[in-house]
Amino acid sequence: MKRRNNRDVTETYFKGEHLSLSDLKEQRIVQNGYLYKNNIPAYPESVEFHVQKVSHVTGVQGLNGIFHNSGFRQPLEMVASGQHHFLWWDLSVTSDDISSAEERFLTSLFPHRSAAQLRGQSPVLEHFTTSNAFQKKSSYGNFRFTFSFKQLLWHYVNQFCDGQSPVLRVFETVVYRREILYKILVHPRDIHMYDEHYPRLPGQEDGVCGYHDGALWWRCQAPSETYKLKLEVNQLNCSVHVSPHREEYYVWDHVCVAFHMEPGWVLKVDQNKLLKSVNACEMSQPFLLRAPETPLSLNEAEHVLANLKASMV
Q: Which helix (H) or strand (E) holds 95?
């Protein structure tokens, strides 16, 4: 199905499904030339990341609003327009997450590597994790709040779920021109509007993403927007390396988490924790700030944040 989102961008979406790239290629409704390219060089596919942190990025007004409210809420203009009430968070993939994912990937290729082969393997995944899903920059603002997903769930449970564990569901797959977005939904147990059309999120089963033991797992299928290198696999030596390749553009995939929020709800967080969790970041194209927010340089953003922190001492 197709729709126009709140940024007036056309998107193709699949409700209650997390469809892999191969699944999407079989959907006739998906008219995306990049998705069907067959000249993409070999790269690490279906690499499994175990991510414990999530982040929320905003502009100056959002930053001030979060500290004014001592927490996170849906923008008032979106509540007034009758849009769905969600608080959005992206996976925050660390360098340690990438190293661990690479080890899992290499072990799946070569389960019986020797100690010498282990020592001789140079990092390769860092050459391919170049999409926006892995970058410190953001299209959504200059101020990033980062929490462990487990900690965020704890706040949500204690404020909106009467101490009961929330429900995690498969929400949507959304396809843009060069971007595949997998949405995970979190809601209290006494909210039943999602029961019929949105299945429970997998634990350790097959799938694109799920939740297990405090971490969100994600089988990344397209880690780069642009490929300039090719993955070479040497089965004899149980090793992999990269070689140059003609530049090719492709789709990239990522995961976000939507917390169900009723009108007026504010996900409260202690001011000291907010201060420790926020940092300034550089913005990247395309700028997706909502008016009247405007992008700042990294230096300007750091100055704004320093002034805010000084005013709260």
A: helix 95-109
